[in-house]
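Practice problem: predict the structure.
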Amino acid sequence: VLRRFGLGIFAIHNNSLLVVLLMVLQWAGQGIPSPVRPICDLRVLDHFIMEARDTETALRGCKAGCGVTGTFVVPLTNVDFLVWETKDIWEQAVEVQSGLSLLGQALGAVGESLSNAVMQSLITNNKSNIRSLGQVLHTPAGGGTATRKVSSLSELLSVHINFLRGKVRLLLKNAPVCQQSSP
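Answer:
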């Protein structure tokens, strides 16, 4: 049987059965997508925050094609720790997911209205980061967060950074699945 799969060479090793079993399991699992795992390593979130700050810095240096018109609904970024800690992890996740959804929509609208290619690229990258965080949370985006309106790109980026630094960080830092994976 091993020769049929071209694995006959492994039969002479002490751990050949284990090697073959692992290879078969690897081969069999290729069609099954691996589940998205939570971002428990906060360095990933820190990287997303750094990219958002870089976008904010680039905006300050932008001379043309960086203006946006209209208003955008964004989540509130302030955290009342007493209220936050009384919420269960599911409520916190829904609130964060709702905020990420609002930020993703706002960044998408901004990206479409910018004429500066560099800023468009930076905004697209930030939107991608938001989408990645949203996919990790696996909670439905509901109306679970308080909102406000902003009318400038600098305000939007400030809210984006503060939301990541605040509610997203709190959620990921205290998520039970992340506590289990820590040493």
